[in-house]
Amino acid sequence: MFARKVAVRLKPNSLHQFASLMDREVLPWLRTQPGFLDLILLAASDGSEVATISFWDQEGDAQAYNASGYPAALKVLEGLLDGKPYVKTFEVVSSTLQKISPAQPAGGEIAEEENAKPTTPTGDTGPIQLAYPAYETRA
Fold first, then answer.
1. Which overall architecture, per CATH, does domain 2-91 show?
2. pLDDT one-digit tens code per residue, 43-69
3. Is 42 in contact with 51 (CB distance < 8 Å)?
4. Which end of the chain is more exposed for a tag (fewer CB within 10 A), N or C?
5. Residue 30's closest CA among 73, 71, 67, 59?
6. Of the candidates 125, 119, 127, which has an alpha carbon nearest to the alpha carbon of residue 101?
7. Which residue ranges make up each domain of the chain?
8. Angle at CA 112, nearest 5°, toward 106 and 117?
9. What is the pLDDT of residues 73-131, one digit of tens each?
């Protein structure tokens, strides 16, 4: 699994609109992309800066999105950004969000389930859906 982090400063008082555009326009499109698993949106407490972390099944999936989809996402958000985003891709080496290694039964052998899919802590196999609260920015 790979993670793609994008961090950028926002224009004043634009956090709510940024989160809304991400939720209404960018995220639905991301869900159609091969290998896309999940997206987390982080915001500084004063609303001046955001970071998104997207999770991808394969490094190639993240690279394909970077080459084709990312420029389109930037177009949607460009009026809210105060500067150029910083982008970096990481290999996920450990995660509590998805079960990465199989459980070991009492007999000591590793159980291999047929067609096993990674799951979230609640047992879901799909992307985690985040609800964005109504953000208030400070003047």
1. 2-Layer Sandwich (3.30)
2. 999 999 999 999 999 999 988 888 888
3. yes
4. C
5. 73
6. 119
7. 2-91
8. 120
9. 899 999 999 999 999 989 989 888 765 544 334 444 434 433 444 444 444 444 443 43
